Amino acid sequence: RQVAEGGENFVPPSSRGCKFALNALLQGLGVEDLAMGIPQGTLRTAISLLLCSLVDEHGLLCFEQGPTLVRAVNVLIAKMLDAANKNYAFAALLHLLRSPPSKSLGQDAVPKFNDLVVKCLIKLTKGLDSTDVNIDISFILLCLHDYFMFLGVEEIRRRSAAEDKPLRMVKTILHQICKLVGYNVYQYTSSIPGRHAQPQPIIFRYIDINLKMLKEMNQLPTDDGAGGVGGVGGVGGVG
Fold this sequence. Notes:
The protein is 60% helix and 2% strand. It has helices at residues 16-29, 32-36, 40-55, 66-83, 86-98, 102-105, 110-126, 137-151, 153-161, 165-181, 202-216, and strands at 2-3, 10-11. Strand 1 (2-3) and strand 2 form a beta hairpin. Helix 5 (86-98) packs parallel to helix 8 (137-151) and helix 10 (165-181) packs across helix 11. It starts with a strand and ends in a 23-residue tail after the last helix.
């Protein structure tokens, strides 16, 4: 922070460097090979840092033209979710949802951070009714399984009773996949161990519940091969 001579009036730091950095990232995401080539860990770190900048009350808004920077970060996040590998984006966001950067944010800011992660996941999930050969449903299901396993049955019960928003979001993704591929969903669970174990991993119980519900509502695919591959098309922005 810079203070004008006399120490009374706060002079916001210039936003010029931030604008250049955000614009460079945005231009880079316009190159398909570059955007699709972002590793999963790098994508997770980038999304986390950008979301943290939106949550930090003493961050972007302290700069000159702070509101403009906030809008630019939102645009950059939306572009990142559109242009990068969707499977990596799902994995990155699900990881952040279960392990938010609480040390960087502070516990009071974690709920707001989680809300932003949920918004990003809504953006990705809304596109699961289109076709995209680059979407790996098996990989996404494995990420959902990892999330459930990370929480454990007792924590899932506690959060379900509290209507926990992150958990509801994860269940919504699973519901959308079941709606998209119907009973073919089991073809995509080969990488998830324990389907025939007792007790089963909880994801299989949720799959059974979703399929039963969708069947009763007559919302399962009519063709066994319908929606064999789910995709994410362009939807609205993060904010």
